[in-house]
Amino acid sequence: MKEILIATKNKGKVTDFRALFDKYGIEVISLADLAETIADIPETGSTFEENAVIKAEAIAKMLQMPVLADDSGLEVTALNNRPGIFSARYAGEEKNDQKNLHKVLTELEGVASDDRSARFVCALAVAEPGQETFVKRGVCEGVITAQPVGTHGFGYDPIFQPIGYDKTMAQLSTKEKNSISHRGNALEKLEEWLKLR
Ligand SMILES: O=c1nc[nH]c2c1ncn2[C@H]1C[C@H](O)[C@@H](COP(=O)(O)OP(=O)(O)OP(=O)(O)O)O1
Ligand SMILES: [Mg+2]
Which residues does the annotation say bind Mg(2+) (predicted)? Predict the structure, then answer.
């Protein structure tokens, strides 16, 4: 495989995937690189896996080519695992990363550091016309910080400190993040599929 289409409109995910696929020598193409404009696929599933499969199968059918889709988000234990699959629109339809992470911080006001555990979850689905779809989950455990710190990455990275680190995900380089992230972890589980193609 020389290139792979990632069925996402999220630039932060594309940056992560470019670095992840670099080591396989595979070029990443995103929906933003296509000449045609692809409408948003409604994420109507009730799990990350269902949503990843919905996105992958819809785009594979539309473009008649193999695609990889990512559905991911943040689960905060003290918030009964919210925002979960609603992470992108947690503070409103406009999908604003700053508003989303501040909503989480506000909801955790007064919650002690011991009770701020959280995890990033990523479901990756690969779909190909006429073939069985595969989906795998990756997880990265951590804690929610008191304030946003760091400028790298995207989404909730500035408030997420992975276990064993004294930095947030937004203070790590893309390479360091990928080596421990939910996304990197899920992609490792799809290596078999990648090698077959
Ligand atoms: O590594 C990450 N670091 C920080 N935040 C992250 C990460 N991975 C997912 N997230 C957050 C961002 C967004 O709030 C939600 C994904 O929502 P999700 O629907 O999968 O993506 P999206 O709507 O932005 O793009 P698309 O559906 O076109 O792939 O979780
Ligand atoms: Mg989405």
Answer: 71
Ion ligand 2 — residues with CB < 5 Å: 88
**Mean per-residue pLDDT over the chain, rounded:** 96
* Strands ordered across the beta sheet of 27-30: 27-30, 3-6, 67-76, 117-127, 134-144, 160-162
Instruction: Determine the residue of 8, 13, 50, 71 to mutate for testing ligand 1's pocket, defined as the one with the most ligand atoms within 8 A of the Cβ atom.
Output: 13
CA distance 131 to 144: 40
* Domains identified in the chain and CATH numbers: 3-196 (3.90.950.10)
Q: Determine which one of 22, 40, 70, 71 is catalytic.
A: 71
Instruction: Please work out whether the CB of residue 57 comes within 6 Å of at least one atom of ligand 1.
Output: no
Tell me: the pLDDT tens digits for 52-102?
Answer: 999 999 999 999 999 999 999 999 999 999 999 999 999 999 999 999 999
40 is in an annotated binding site: no
